[in-house]
User: Fold this.
Amino acid sequence: MPPVRLLTLEINGDTHRLAAPAHWTLLEVLRYKLGLTGSKQGCDKGDCGACTVLADAEPTLSCLTLAALAEGRAITTIEGLAPLHKARGGQGADPVQEAFDRCGALQCGFCQPGMMLSARALLDRRPAPARGEIRAALAGNLCRCTGYTQIFQAVELAAREGGEG
Amino acid sequence: MAARDDHGPGPPWGDEFQVVGRRLRKVDGMAKATGAALYTDDIALAGMLHAKTLRSPHAHARIRSIDTSRAEALAGVHAVITGAAMPVKYGVIPWTPDENALATDRVRFVGDEVAAVAAVDEEVAAAALALIEVDYEPLHAFLDPREALARGEPRIHQDNRHGNVSKHVELSFGDVEAAFERADVVVAGEYSFHGTTHTAIEPHCAVARCGPDGLLTVWSSTQITHYLQRALARVLGLAEARIRVVQPCLGGAFGGKSDPFSLEFCVAKLAMITGRPVKMLWTREEVFYAHRGRHPMQMSYRTGATRDGRLTGVDARILIDGGAYSSFGLVTTYYSGQLLTGPYDFPAYRFDSTRVFTNKPPCGPKRGHGSVQPRFAFEVQLDELAHELGLDPIEIRRKNFQGQHTRTVNGQRITSNGFLECLDEVERASGWKERRGRLARGRGLGVAGSMYISGTNYPVYPNDMPQAGVQLKVDRSGLVTAFTGGNDIGQGSSSVVAYIVAEELGLDPRDVRVVAADTDLCPVDLGAYSSRVTFMVGNATIDAARKLRALVVQAVAADWQVAPERVRLARGRALDLEDGERAIPIREAFQLAEARFDTLGSTGSYNTPALGGDYRGGSIGAAPAYSFTAHVVEVVVDEETGRITVETAWIAHDCGRALNPMLVAGQMEGSAYMGIAEALFEHHDVNRFGLHAGPSLLDYRIPTSLDTPELCALIVESVDPEGPYGAKEAGEGPLHPSIPAISNAVFDAVGVRLRHLPFTPARVLAALRGERERAAEPAAAGAAGEGRR
Assistant:
């Protein structure tokens, strides 16, 4: 049996103490220990970006991050995005989530949790990004449904609406 | 049969649409946006075991023996199965059942499934796989379809009476030889299409549970719930009524989840054996080997035309590399010829298509099934013809337009046809007239057109029942629940059902719930393939909603003691058209109807009319309506590196009526992006050992947000007489022209013809070099003209 490690993780503002195999990734802990299945596994090797979470506000591939290395960092998953928005004084879901829905960017939706977190990180850094900056910021998140156009439009809409709020 | 009657494409209440045509949110949008949507791999059941598959390392081999005893003895292993556990063959097309859930005596490609293990977790299951001993006798592997065509032995499928030929179709319409005699110019050439694959971001996953009552439930990332239920019954020897198949939220499919797959049978069998729920999630590498992607095709085309550019005839010969199994191959082979007969009219047509088996991952249906490859060849050839005749490439397409409400040379019925408007739109939006021919060398514009089926009247098993059924249930709260077998694979079919119910009953779409793709709960729909769901499920929904509406209107009219014509359901209320003061909330209208007519509900269905040519195979490719598309793309060719960049793609698509223009545009953009990717980036390549050249999302280069061009979706609405409110498909047609349009734009940019996919920098450089050499030797230029008669 592989060795088990005791972990203390801060996920979406909650502190979790749990035991998991020492070699488990953050994605495995999120999905299989905490039931936070919004983070998706598309390739399990860092190619697709569907598992992207925010670690101290930085987009991070949870499938390539050992859970143990996430200790001491504030992790935000897609489930935590709307609560984070509320904690910052907003109402309802994060403007990124609303904009993705309003722009048709959510087709199959499988890549979008990672995509939306990358978009959130971009907007936190650059509240009014140019199209080229959006393209660059999302280049680590593969989408197979949309051709990306409605995603770009959604990020632009979120920037406009988020800026007002 | 009132249920199948046409209801006309207009708004249900006579003047204007309330819901249809608006950019509304999807019913599952916020569930997906917040991570709440549950996909198959998100299901975790108490006591669930995890399964993994042992796969063949050989491209072609006989299995002498399998020893699973060491694997079974490993702590944590609950069951090991091999082909002996499920010897019954299956195939999505019932005429060609040639697959086993696990190999019984032979493996036919690297990655063919041999054994499966259920264990406490994936790691133990993987360790157990390493303990299974298989004694293989390697056989000659066919990796080149030309060899498989020429050599019948060793036979990849022992019971195949046609050597290694999977399917051969030869059909001829009109006098083809006379057509070429009559032609002033004939262009002939060879074209090839490499293999590509779907690459949905969600890998295949299935979960099974066998309850104490003996009922088997299978949750699967499938786009064919109904066919999967039938296949499971066949292979497992269970009555269909004992099997429930549920499609949870699905993370993309594009045709790649429209076969029954080994993992679905394996989890079911393992759950039956162990009495525990079992999950299997394929790795990305396994998904690449499971494949079912676009068939490689080698295509010879000959097209004749008169001096003024009227097509006289088309003659095609196509060799299709099917990979190891049939899948939808029978249909693919027909589609490779049958779907070329629009949007242009030509009086004579012949095609001779042969699909052969090879020892490679099996090909199947990918977005634009069977017709993307021939469309590439033909639309490039049409451009060559225009060049030869000194005609504008858009003009030659206009000149040969088949018209609407007509019949194709192979007997297919065309209803609405907005192809001319599509050409107008892309011509205008791209600035074609002003810009083409005036761009700097290295920059070019190219055009191509296409048509595609909007559903097919060919259910994979012949029957007289509806192709699509919908059931509505009404709640006293004002809520309507729609039950549909339709598979929402991200395209938004459940949302379309909600929009239609809302339109018909005057509801806010948020007051419609949709329960979809659960065989226990939902009436049958055949599945999300052939671009059939909006058309067929949409029509079934209108049918069901109108029956329900009649009851509600009648009940309200009776209560108000007015004629039913005065009652209208709109904006969540029942209104009296002649008395602006009188209105009740819809829930009260529902309650009146329930009190008057008993528990409220309705069913609706859709079936295609009799369609197709009167010949063997004449119904394959027969659709109740066809969509039409035109693209113009602008490319930049770097003559130093050979790299092609598509800067902008203008996509005009005739979708009949856009039920939600935002979702239609999403389908158009996604289709065009996928086609452009196939032309420039992607290659599902198998090497001489039968190994995939790059089975990862890094090596198989699907475009990132940096690679995708500007995509400009231009919706054309021809309003089809038989579509739901006039709608036709939008999910597959818009892929077709993107590939030939790039080749044609490259010709415009640098004067070389790319007839072989993918358009790699090496190919572009070789073509440029060839062109320079030809230019340097003017005397030899005539002889070097590739493929010209």
